[in-house]
Amino acid sequence: MSAPLDTSDEVLSGEAVAIDVQPVGFLLRALGAIIDMLLSFAVFILWIFVQIWLSEAGLLDEATGRIATVVSIVVSFVVLPITIEVLMKGRSLGKLAVGGRIVRIDGGATGFRHAFIRGLLGVLEIYMTLGGIAVLAGAFSSRSQRLGDMVAGTYSQRVRAPRLTPNVPVMPPALAGWAQIADVARLPDRLARRISQFLQSAPRMVPAARARVAQDLLTDAAPFVSPIPPAPPELVLVGITVLRRERERRALQNADARAERLTGRRVGI
Q1: For residues 59 and 243, what is the distance between their CA atoms, to the nearest angstrom?
Q2: What is d(CA 245, CA 38) in angstroms, rounded to the nearest whole number?
Q3: Closest residue by Cα to residue 90 from 74, 109, 71, 68
Q4: How does pLDDT run across 60-107, given as a tens digit for each residue?
Q5: Predicted local distance difference test score (pLDDT) of residue 264
Q6: Do residues 184 and 225 touch, judged by C-beta distance below 8 A?
Q7: CA distance 197 to 13
């Protein structure tokens, strides 16, 4: 009997399609955070130089200079990160560099509330402790969530598209009728990846081993596919992969469209 598959990294779309939502790894997320920190410090240092110039020019007295310093700290380390994240819809300079975006736990788009919570707690866990709290929280979180993510209900999702494989499977003509009625929505993502990897490596396998692995994979997939067509196992696996890929593509397009509509409504409010 096959071991149960962990589907903790899957989100069920409105069309009941399990979509792979891999989080950004701990090291990449730390690198992105460092880039964002450097941007905030650069803005803060630039502001200080401007204050010094204004003070030497006699345009700022001591009391006003102290107020300006406090304002520069708030703007550089709180207002700037929140504004960038809201305007770029969950992204920032660091997240663009590592291919990530902040999303809700259910995979939906974030808003001002999420960015505000993350920005405020970021002052504590990133700047006041030099990232110590964020590192500890991320190291013990399955999705590399820092404290602000846990409170806001968000995480950093990997959005950089992988390279397309050279041999993209197409629906076999013999399964065209089956594809119109087939249901592959419940197929776990990890099993789908195993099937995809097998199809990519199948031409290089020994025929006997190729047939055996195809049969084993079809046996694992059978509880999640309805109906099972009367065709060779490998051909059925190709049909399952193509059908699931097309439904995932449509689900992602629908999700992006919904996110754009919701963002437009919030801006209009």
Answers
A1: 68
A2: 39
A3: 109
A4: 788 888 888 999 999 999 999 999 999 998 899 998 888 888 988 877
A5: 57
A6: yes
A7: 24
Could you write out the DSSP letters of every residue in the chain? -PPPPP-TTEEE-TTS-EEE-PBPPHHHHHHHHHHHHHHHHHHHHHHHHHHHHHHHTTS--HHHHHHHHHHHHHIIIIIHHHHHHHHTTS--HHHHHHTEEEEETTSPBP-HHHHHHHHHHHIIIIIITTTHHHHHHHHTSTT---HHHHHHTEEEEE-PPPPPPSS-----GGGHHHHHH-B-TT--HHHHHHHHHHHHHGGGS-HHHHHHHHHHHHHHHGGGSBSPPSS-HHHHHHHHHHHHHHHHHHHHHHHHHHHHHHHHHHHH-
pTM as predicted: 0.55
Angle of helix 189-201 relative to helix 207-221, nearest 10 degrees? 160
Question: Which amino acid, 202?
Answer: A
pLDDT, tens digit (0-9, with 9 covering 90-100), for 143-190: 888 999 999 999 888 876 545 445 677 888 888 889 888 888 888 888
